[in-house]
TrEMBL record, chain A:
Enzyme Commission numbers on file: 6.3.5.3, 3.5.1.2
Gene responsible for this protein: purQ
UniProtKB keywords: ATP-binding, Cytoplasm, Glutamine amidotransferase, Hydrolase, Ligase, Nucleotide-binding, Purine biosynthesis
SMART domains: GATase_5
Protein name: Phosphoribosylformylglycinamidine synthase subunit PurQ
Cellular component GO terms, alphabetical: cytoplasm
UniProtKB/TrEMBL annotation, chains B, D:
GO BP field: 'de novo' IMP biosynthetic process
Family classification: Belongs to the PurS family.
Organism: Hwanghaeella grinnelliae
EC nos: 6.3.5.3
UniProt name for this protein: Phosphoribosylformylglycinamidine synthase subunit PurS
NCBIfam families tied to this protein: phosphoribosylformylglycinamidine synthase subunit PurS (TIGR00302), PRK05974.1 (NF004630)
Catalytic activity, as annotated: N(2)-formyl-N(1)-(5-phospho-beta-D-ribosyl)glycinamide + L-glutamine + ATP + H2O = 2-formamido-N(1)-(5-O-phospho-beta-D-ribosyl)acetamidine + L-glutamate + ADP + phosphate + H(+)
Keyword Acetylation belongs to the record: no
Subunit structure: Part of the FGAM synthase complex composed of 1 PurL, 1 PurQ and 2 PurS subunits.
Cellular localization per UniProt: Cytoplasm
Pathway(s) served: Purine metabolism; IMP biosynthesis via de novo pathway; 5-amino-1-(5-phospho-D-ribosyl)imidazole from N(2)-formyl-N(1)-(5-phospho-D-ribosyl)glycinamide: step 1/2
Length: 229, 80, 576, 80
């Protein structure tokens, strides 16, 4: 699996994700500075977490409208897998690769904790190592993770089976109590129509090593490594 | 020329910040507050031949960057 | 500017006493101009000169085989083996946080991060020690909210995990909250950067954000007692820009991986003044600055304002000759300002120019050496009477007491706070907040660092010496409880007005206790900060000597954690 | 009655958001942008006898909660 990790000014979780990719695939990812003109020829492009451009104006707005993201969009249209985590998810929605928007957490606070999710859908290149309905624990760390889209969009996402992760309570039940940030229909991660782009708020990369207190996140990277070997 | 862009959440989109302010005003003893909404204002000092050109330019900025049409509305005011 | 007339009022406004001003006159051999007066004022403020505390700080143990750099630089440095070093310091941002809690706390975090990465270290952990007034006050809630959001806002954005801290509440902090921030960084022990300027003719370079009229006189504000007029006076508080600091961090570390830098110093409180003076003084050289070349944010700024501005996210460096272009390319890639604003000279003076015209000329050595040092009168804190248990009101049932304790603001869970801090970023946090000490793994080794901040102000009030000792011991124990060997400590001495013998007595007592414990435990002091005049209308805060510690676990897989692990395991109680 | 409070950073106070937007507009190819500042707008729907009472009330809200005079200025507009 050849993977590129895009680095914007203010990106800060690139190390975490690169290590996770290496743990799952045994291969080192390549960092790509946003200003570099060409994207390398890779199987997977990752837009990592952080505060691109300080999260000023709107999270992901400035990065989402940057030249490199236009190039990422072209690659995505050509079928390259794209993974956006946290700020990366925000950037992908701003770029238009994914529908909806991430709003400020309902409780108006930054929230960093281990969150329980359920895998809604194991029929994707990002989640094939999980079983449907599996309960997993990934850390979250965000201020704007509250997923919003209009009802038609939400219905479509669900109808097309494009919701991959949902927030759940500790037992793995998808309910209000488990919805840590107010996201519509507990949505934590979604696919694009062609199912080659995944955006998600939680950080699977911070659950890939026993020393981090859990390895539930490894499955996501292993799924990718498996299809993209 | 000065452009003032006011960006507000579309009606129907929940505004937790506005709600929090409303709540805090109540806690401070202010009465009769029915609703609070919070938005952004962006002031741009720019060179443009005339107000119409300026407005067109700023509209383009809103479309490309300043506002997110999924949840936000915007209005533009131009002054000299 | 040069036309401003020196008057006793102007001198007093700059916080200098009559005696101090006479020393200025004798150093200069003439009347200073306003820019020069501003420089003396800042350099001799309590905040920069440690005039009330220096005498006592010298009594602290600061050496040991593990110590690479003790107090006197931007941060302390200790050896952690395999060619690596831990770099750390704590710093207060008490007064600004009271006035603008979010920005005050945020810029506090920004400042301490710069102190650590200036030394060549990548910050790997942030900590914070907070003290607020009565939790029933609306003002307290406002401060807690703002301070916590500000600490998180800055640390989360720059991408350094905030892994530990402490919070207390007491009415003595009603008018004066405490915000102490600590950063731990990781460096190669053969690539530590210092502030000593050298190399006659070497370029002096300014990098980072532009200079604005931020917090002019902030350093003197941090040294003056609060009055009810302070809120009226509305001194400018700086706004932090963690995004720019992240760029500055990456750009500095990138340049530090070359050998282009001779020395580097962050512009903290007292900005360009203290950084240039310290660099020149340590190197025994002069520095010439062309102030018109400083990147400016606003029009019409004066030399006085440029020298005193506290704008954040800036650094001053001396480069090797001919390396400017290489350095400029790195800073421009990170979209930061870069300007050659002067050079190292033989004059021994700080020479300031404004479009070619001299606007200041101060001999550096006397400016630093003649800075006042006071052995202020102090009274020992009287011993407290022992409390007779029978004199206490009946506390009722044990379970009720337990409930009271667990629900008290000082004892209840702090989860609400630390869940607002990204404590997991970098993926190396092995013990998250909520335990004894936080533990952070050192990448690509089997090592980890344990770190914690501790102080119990009510002990310090009852008996400053015991309180000082206890704080050191608690910090030590917290690290030992994770399996770490404590290496060294940093401290933040937060006290009231040192001109009052009673308060000075608390300070002296705490230093004595701290020194004794540090010596006994072989746990030297490698850095620290002093914050005095924490008073409002004559009411002082509790004496609060905060101790921050760093310890080493050689093998993190042997780390101990807090939780009981399984049923039927034996519980042991150790100690007296 | 509707009150619109516009809160901006005092001139001279660093506005990192404004700077970042200015920079991003430049990167998107917009020219002639000299300065950008970002502020907040808070819309309050409230009951008040008349505009003068409303304005006084909102002014009080600004002083107590909405703005921090250390770094922010505000202006109030009342409409029916
Ligand atoms: N309480 C203390 N104990 C030990 N060292 C201290 C103490 N207070 C200050 N220092 C040392 O004095 C020097 C100056 O501190 P400070 O003015 O806080 O630095 P800066 O201005 O760079 O933030 C530093 O080296 C610091 O470690």
């Amino acid at each position: 699996m050849r993977a590129a990790v895009i680095v914007f000014p203010g990106t800060n979780r690139e190390k975490d994700i690169a290590e996770a990719l290496e743990r799952a695939s045994g291969k080192k990812a390549q960092f790509v500075w946003h200003g570099d003109s060409d994207l390398p020829d890779v199987d997977l492009i990752v837009v990592p977490g952080g505060f691109s451009y300080g999260d000023y104006l709107r999270c992901g707005a400035m990065a989402g409208n940057s030249p490199v993201m236009r190039a990422v969009k072209q690659k995505a249209d050509a079928g390259v897998r794209v993974l956006g985590v946290c700020n990366g998810f925000q950037i992908l929605t701003e770029t238009g690769l994914l529908p909806g928007v991430l709003m400020r957490n309902a409780q108006l606070k930054f929230i960093c904790k281990k969150a329980t999710l359920t895998v809604q859908n194991s029929d994707s290149d990002f989640s094939s190592a999980y079983s449907e309905g599996q309960r997993v624990v990934f850390p979250v760390a965000h201020n704007e993770g509250n997923y919003f889209a209009d009802d038609a969009t939400l219905d479509r996402l669900e109808g097309e089976d494009r919701v991959v992760f949902r927030y759940a309570d500790a037992d793995g039940t998808v309910n209000k109590a488990g919805n840590i940030n107010g996201s519509q229909r507990n949505i934590a991660g979604i696919l694009n129509e062609k199912r080659n782009v995944l955006g998600m708020m939680p950080h699977p990369e911070n659950a890939t090593d026993p020393a981090q207190g859990g390895t539930d996140g490894l499955g996501l990277f292993k799924s990718l490594a498996e299809v993209l070997q | 020329m000065k452009a003032t862009v006011t960006i507000t959440l579309k009606s129907g989109v929940l505004d937790p910040q506005g709600k929090a302010i409303e709540h805090a005003l109540g806690a401070l003893g202010f009465q009769g507050v029915n609703d609070v909404r919070q938005g952004k204002v962006i002031e741009i000092d720019l060179d443009a031949a005339d107000p119409t050109t300026a407005e067109a330019l700023v509209k383009d900025m809103c479309g490309k960057l300043l506002a997110n049409p999924v949840i936000e509305d915007y209005s533009i005011e131009i002054s000299a | 500017m040069s036309g401003v007339k020196m008057t006793p009022e102007l001198v007093a406004e700059h916080g200098l006493t009559g005696d101090e001003y006479n020393t200025v006159l004798s150093i200069m051999g003439r009347e200073p101009n306003i820019t020069e007066l501003g420089i003396f004022s800042v350099m001799w403020s309590e905040h920069c000169s440690y005039k009330s505390s220096r005498f006592w700080l010298k009594t602290l143990p600061t050496t040991g085989p593990q110590v690479i750099q003790g107090p006197g630089e931007n941060a302390g440095v200790v050896d952690i083996g395999e060619g690596q070093a831990a770099v750390f310091k704590i710093e207060s941002h008490n007064h600004p946080s009271y006035i603008e809690p979010y920005q005050g706390a945020a810029t506090g975090v920004g400042g301490i991060l710069r102190d650590v990465f200036t030394m060549g270290a990548r910050p790997i952990a942030n900590l914070n020690a907070l003290r607020f007034g009565d939790p029933g006050n609306a003002k307290t809630r406002h401060l807690v909210d703002g301070v916590v959001a500000g600490i998180g806002g800055y640390g989360n954005c720059i991408g350094v995990p905030t892994v530990a801290g402490e919070v207390n509440f007491h009415p003595a902090y009603n008018g004066n909250c405490l915000v102490n921030a600590m950063t731990v960084g990781l460096a190669d022990s053969d690539n530590i950067f210092y502030s000593k300027a050298s190399g006659i003719g070497n370029p002096v370079v300014y990098v980072g954000s532009k200079t604005g009229r931020d917090g002019i006189h902030g350093a003197t504000m941090a040294s003056a007692e609060f009055s009810d007029q302070t809120e009226e006076k509305r001194p400018t508080v700086q706004v932090g820009d963690p995004f720019t600091e992240k760029l500055l961090l990456e750009a500095c570390l990138e340049l530090m991986s070359t050998d282009a830098i001779v020395s580097i110093q962050d512009m903290g409180a007292a900005g360009l003044t203290s950084s240039s003076v310290e660099m020149a003084d340590k190197g025994g050289v002069g520095i010439r600055l062309d102030l018109d070349k400083v990147p400016m944010r606003e029009e019409g700024m004066t030399p006085y304002e440029l020298m005193l501005s506290e704008s954040q996210e800036r650094m001053l460096m001396v480069l090797k000759p001919g390396r400017e272009d290489e350095a400029r390319a790195i800073f421009e890639k990170w979209e930061l300002d870069f300007a050659v604003i002067g050079e190292v000279t033989t004059s021994g003076n700080l020479e300031l120019f404004w479009y070619g015209e001299t606007v200041g000329d101060i001999p550096v050595k006397p400016l630093v050496e003649a800075s006042p040092m006071y052995e202020r009168p102090w009274e020992p804190t009287p011993a407290q009477a022992e409390i007779d248990p029978d004199s206490l009101p009946d506390a009722g049932k044990m379970t009720n007491c337990l409930k009271d304790i667990l629900s008290s603001p000082d004892m209840c869970s702090r989860r609400w706070i630390w869940e607002q801090y990204d404590h997991l970023i970098r993926g190396e946090t092995l013990q998250i907040p909520g335990g004894d000490a936080a533990v952070v793994r050192i990448p690509e080794t089997s090592k980890a660092l344990a770190t914690t901040v501790d102080c119990t102000p009510r002990y310090c009030l009852a008996d400053p010496e015991q309180g000082g000792r206890q704080a050191v011991a608690e910090c030590w124990r917290n690290m030992v409880a994770t399996g770490a060997k404590p290496l060294a400590l940093t401290n933040n001495m937060n006290f009231g007005n040192p001109e009052r013998p009673k308060i000075m007595g608390q300070f002296v007592g705490a230093i004595k206790g701290m020194a004794a414990a540090a010596k006994t435990l072989d746990f030297p002091v490698v850095s620290g900060n002093v914050s005095l005049y924490n008073e409002t209308e004559g009411k002082a805060i509790l004496p609060t000597p905060v101790i921050g510690g760093v310890g080493l676990l050689k093998d993190h897989t042997k780390m101990a954690t807090l939780a009981f692990k399984a049923e039927d395991e034996t519980i042991l109680l150790l100690g007296e």
